[in-house]
Amino acid sequence: MRTAPSARRASPRPRADALRNRERIITAAREMFVEHGPQVPLDEIARRAGVGNATLYRNFPDRDALVREVLCSVMDRTAEAAKCALAETGDAFAALERFAHAAAEERISALCPMVSSTFDRNHPDLEAARERVEALIAEVMDRAKAAGQLRTDVGVGDLMVAAAQLSRPPAGTACFDADRFVHRHLQLFLDGLRAPARSVLPGTAVTMEDLRQS
What we know:
Pfam families: TetR_C_43 (PF21597), TetR_N (PF00440). Residues 19-78 form the HTH tetR-type domain. The chain is mainly alpha-helical. The chain has 2 domains: 15-61, Arc Repressor Mutant, subunit A, CATH 1.10.10; 71-213, Tetracycline Repressor, domain 2, CATH 1.10.357. Helices cover 60% and strands 0% of the residues. It has 9 helices and no strands. Helix 1 crosses helix 2, helix 4 runs antiparallel to helix 5 (92-105) and helix 7 packs antiparallel against helix 8 (179-191).
């Protein structure tokens, strides 16, 4: 699945080899941020991507620029997974399940430590990617609710918190040893989302805005 860049990030199309280098850098950065945490040296990222330091800095002048692009890339890929779920014409809850498992694969929560107090969380690129993915996830969930398959007292924030927490590896450890548990435990959570609800949840449905304000 290829990253769908936001309109705000559109620019004159670079050469094919330059595009490949940029994608390799983004992929390597995402992998190393997940594996080693926020302080992984940029030259190590360049080495894994198979490019020189000059190529990395030509594409991303500083760490914040690279982190921002990785976050946008992950959100774009998550949005594409949601679009695939919406394109399905069968069981709405099964489509929701497939989306949730695909979202967990993106490990977006492992990137949260990268967003430091000095990071521009309101950058236009991030806002555009965030608004797109949140609207698509809401649509996937609303369709399952309309089919009477998803309990009505949950929101987008509830789903994404669970997917994030269940798939978040402890940075700097043998995090991929726990991969075999992620989808098993996520499925247990998803089973609890099915309607009719078997219990009354405390509090109210969680939105993504609730998460940002917490």
